[in-house]
Amino acid sequence: MRKPLLEFTDKGIYCSAAMVYLDPWKPVDRAIITHGHADHSRYGHRQYITHHNNMPIISHRLGEINVLGKNWGETFLINNVKFSLHPAGHIIGSSQIRVEYKGEVWVFTGDYKTENDGFTTPYEVVKCDTFITECTFGLPAFKWIPQKEVFQDINQWWAENQAEGKTSILFGYSLGKAQRLLKYLNPEIGKIYTHGAIENMTNVLRPMVEFPETNLITRETKKEELLGNLVLAPPSAHGSTWIRKMVPYVTASASGWMTFRGARRRRAIDKGFVLSDHCDWQGLLDSIKATGAEKVICTHGYSEIFSRYLREQGYDARTEETQYEGELNELNATKEESVAMN
Known about the structure:
The chain is an alpha/beta fold. Helix content is about 25%, strand content about 25%. It has two domains: about 5-140 and about 275-330, Metallo-beta-lactamase, Chain A (4-Layer Sandwich), CATH 3.60.15.10; about 145-275, Rossmann fold (3-Layer(aba) Sandwich), CATH 3.40.50.
């Protein structure tokens, strides 16, 4: 029986023909990295290969690393296996990895979204035989509202809070979601303040994207300065001593999980905005169909439900276990966020 081009091992997704791993979760000699989120770009690899725009992100997060940058669509050979990176639309610098060997083509998506957010390089359909897809929101209940409408609601919410003399605290993951929020917040309403983790990451990305002006919250920042203005903070800041000094405030979270009211209640959030950097149910289905793939491997998220549906539609679909978390990583404090909070 022919060995699969990509295998799921205890270290990560492995291409034995090239002796290279894709987004491995344990230290390896050579790793091709889709994007900068902590569950996909781990510390300890001897060499990292990623898109040029992701290089400053993972260097900021991981420190001194041996990293090689590639352009979109640039083909590079490793032991006669062809690799290339293609836009995933998830966050800045996020890639799908195309792998070709002896006429067989696989695509590993990492995390991806099909809605064009206006500053991340938009998702690109890549034809393949086997498609490895995330299933973070692989349920029919997840159907995204166009982002223009979401940001209208967010800015209106901020303006209403300002009229009541309250500080608006908006939670979003420090890499990706926070910058997407920042890009479309209306600075005419008031000042935008930031938690240290978000400020630091945004400064890494400012050479690539034009963002509104932000004000870093420090120990010297007074509560009175924040009243009527907006604070961007990571979810890990909720309920912390850092945030308690901002009373009176109103909280909101921007996440795909805000589709469910129960998720908002469990997190003690006043307002939820449905905004995700991942595909919704229809986005996943449309993406898979567009690739022309006959085989689909479903990873993190609602993988069992989603793969069963795909099999009912005639696909050769199965699931594989990984250590990727999708948007669940928005709920967990990272080391960087914890340090910046203190």
